[in-house]
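Summarise what follows for lecture notes:
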Amino acid sequence: MSDPVYLGVDIGTSGSKGVLVDGRGTILARQDLPHETSYPRPGWVEHDAETVWWADFTTLVRRLLDAAGGRRPAGLGVSGIGPVLLPADGAGRALRPAILYGVDTRAATEIDELTAELGAETILHRAGTALSSQAVGPKWRWLARHEPEVFERTEMFLMCSSFLVHRLTGEYVLDHHSASQCDPMYDLHAADWAPDWAELTAPGVRLPRLLWSTEIAGTVTAEAAAATGLPQGLPVTAGTVDAWAEGVSVGVTEPGEVMVMYGTTMFLIEVLDSPIPHPSMWTTSGTHPGTHTLAAGMATSGAITNWLRDLVGGDFAELVEAASQVRPGSGGLLLLPYFAGERTPLFDPDARGILAGLTTGHGRAELYRAVLEGIAHGVRHNLEVMREAGGSAARLVAVGGGTQGGLWTRIVTDVTGLAQQIPRQTVGAALGDAFLAAVATGAEPDPRAWNPVVETIEPDPAAKEIYDAYHRHYRNLYTSTTEIAHFLARQQRTSHRG
């Protein structure tokens, strides 16, 4: 019998990835596709399920199957951005573009309303997480209030991964982790939907059956096989949110281990042996039965580097080389990376980006390094709050496109004072999806053998001392400018309404 191969496909914020791997985790083929994210209004961030999610998926799968040379995959794992809200009709057809995760801040009023109705402490105890722009529940209420014609036609609630699963298998399911981010609709301690709060939040909406990400949701139908080229009957996992699949991809599976994901947004996940709700973090179910995680997420990170590159010109290699010649501190610049508000630990959709200390002597090298340093200070802020909550950050593993080049990971290590391990593969969630497909189909792979650590970045004490002084001012800069940032955010909304 030939060695089994597995497919993993992930739909991200600004692009999608797919991999074909063998039973030892060796990547046999990889495909990447960029795509557009829609920003129709300030605070609104959306994806079209057909032209982004499904189109990317079918393209990636056909390319990977071509690379497989006729070998039939043993399983398929999927993941995607989340939590998101995609209202669909009874056939699973999208009724509007999907409302994305915490970067979409439209439901601020509904967050306040639900928090007042249910009680902040009660929500934190039962659901594990305070309501914020990350939560799905307030977005349901926003939809019912602002687009009642869509809400009235809604029969199914899909996320990115569950949309793919339904299209492939016909099964209406959602994984426990994704459900645990539907605050306040999921009871973290019961590991099930909270039916009373779900009905209050999304009245009349039929909720999907819950599965763990290590379980098979169904098999590829004849119709899906014809649309994708996948073999009919191929087992498909229940799927999950991309960041959690990415944690699996780098072997972050034991309590105290933290994944630091360098992408369009920065995301951190620490594995826990029991839930520890904290008002400034997200406490969720994990990908495996009985597991929990403490998570943090910044609203922007790589998105800011893209913005600056487009603004000043050049390519990333040039910017990284120039910034690497600048000493820690960026020549006296300090950046708040809140270009799309901020998620954890601030939960402030009206926070705004600030670049302090500018002079005519600063150039693009200092600006680019200041961006990387500002994001690194945001990572440190989140790790400090995670430790306050009860996490230990005993082991940090870096993953994502931002690990390439070395400068960004070096800066984060020096700002936080914590070593980071770099695994052999940093392709991200798609590799974790393939791993979950192997587990779900009965294999017993070792994630650390699939993706071993190849480099450890140790902090530079001299740089850490410099950054310690900057970090104190980073924390103070937000509190001292909050009133100004909120005023400017209001002006931006007023300006858009014209």
